[in-house]
Specification:
- The structure is a single chain.
- This protein has one domain.
- The chain is mainly alpha-helical.
- The chain has helices at about 5-25, 35-45, 60-80, 100-110, 115-130, 135-145, 150-175, 180-195, 195-205.
- The protein is built from nine helices and no strands.
- The chain is globular.
- Keywords: Endoplasmic reticulum, ER-Golgi transport, Membrane, Protein transport, Receptor, Transmembrane, Transmembrane helix, Transport.
- It is found in: Endoplasmic reticulum membrane.
- One of its GO terms (molecular function) is ER retention sequence binding.
- Belongs to the ERD2 family.
């Protein structure tokens, strides 16, 4: 565990807490994409298939349980909570899953490190995580006005992935034979998807204005 990895994990955890704060405390999910949250649930479910069969550390297990539990809780709130579900922008959140899921499934079968069920599922989760934020970014562009908590949530998600890239670079130079091209390339693609959002986020922060994305 190095500083970049720890900072990345804590940033990821903080992003989830910010979203849960918005949904559970304020009882509002306006500006949040249910489709992105469902994709993240699939990401964690397929990535952590070994949670009860392959023990790495207590820290690792707790983090897996947190991300699994929080992702499914958020989906439940947005789908079934009698107050929260009324604030969901269903008419604007229309990105089609198939354009993301199907290519990721095909890539996972074609490009992986080992053709086994768990390895293919893990690879699929890596590819899917790289693009799962797209429905959220599209929704923010359509709604344009972004509340503070939603903006912080998306920013923290992007920052988490950027910190993980620094973690991989650090490990590449400090650990012999540390080469994992699949998560590196997927992580780079994911970070690049946030570039436009980061630009307008910092612009709004610099000018002390409310975050607004161009249509």
């Amino acid at each position: 565990m190095n500083l970049f990895r720890l900072a990345g994990d804590m940033t990821h955890l903080l992003s989830v807490l910010v979203l849960l704060l918005k949904i559970h405390t304020i009882k509002n999910c306006a500006g949040v994409s249910l489709k992105t949250q469902e994709l993240y649930s699939v990401v964690f479910a397929t990535r952590y298939l070994d949670i009860f069969t392959h023990y790495i550390s207590l820290y690792n297990t707790i983090m897996k349980l947190i991300f699994l539990g929080s992702s499914f809780s958020i989906v439940w709130y947005m789908r079934h909570h009698k107050i929260v579900r009324r604030t969901y922008d269903k008419d604007q959140d229309t990105f089609r899953y198939i354009f993301l899921v199907l290519p990721c499934i095909l890539l996972a079968f074609l490009i992986n490190e080992k053709l086994t069920f768990k390895e293919v599922m893990w690879t699929f989760s890596v590819y899917l995580e790289a693009v799962a934020i797209l429905p959220q970014l599209v929704l923010l562009q359509r709604t344009r006005n972004i509340d503070n908590l939603t903006g912080q949530y998306v920013f923290l998600l992007g920052a988490y992935r950027a910190l993980y890239i620094l973690n991989w670079i650090y490990r590449y130079f400090t650990e012999p034979h540390f080469v994992h091209w699949i998560p590196w390339i997927a992580g780079l693609v994911q970070t690049l998807l946030y570039a436009d959002f980061f630009y307008y986020y910092f612009l709004s922060w610099k000018n002390n204005k409310k975050l607004e994305l161009p249509a």
